[in-house]
Amino acid sequence: MINYTQHIERVCIDICQKVPQFKHIDPTRIAYSAAYSRKNARFRRIAVMVGCKPKPGSLADQLGIKAQRLKTPSKKIASYMMRIYFPWFFKESFEQKIDTLIHELWHIGVKFDGALRENGSHYDGFQDDVDSLIDDYLGNAPNWDLLDWFDKKIDRDDVWGWRYPIPKATNLDKILGEEYIHRKRYVECSLVKINL
Ligand SMILES: [Zn+2]
User: Fold this and answer.
1) Range of the domain at 131
2) Fewest CB atoms within 10 A around its CB: which of 48, 83, 101, 178?
3) Ion ligand 1: protein residues whose beta carbon lies under 5 Å
């Protein structure tokens, strides 16, 4: 069995090394998390990027809310969490898988401080920027030994993955009272890509 979240971390490390526009990203400080999307789900979730910090200027930010700290298996504090959904990610073509990972990495804010990009999740021209980053990556000697795995047919029994809880607010109780924390939790982003 292959740890697919670890494999995706290795690919993201390779992407960040080969694409200059990702030089602000430390891919070892992203928690890669396995997730499962039910067959009868309304959306076929493929991947989601979650920031471990409220969006600047948002209500949560104004209230001084901090998100729970996540530690990666190598004991680093994660600034982001990337959830990759089984089985839909594995049903994508080779090109779509690369597109998905670069798309998610492009959501990361330029300061790499746990916030997502400020100019909206999918601004006009977002996909054009992603396409150009894909060209940069594939044209800059990517690690094909890693990428070859993306061409294989994967069944559920072939893979396992690390899992993390969605980062939630840690100091909400101090600000809004004990009761609030049980009713609401902070999530930066719930769905960033659906298969159309
Ligand atoms: Zn997106």
Assistant:
1) 2-183
2) 178
3) 192-193
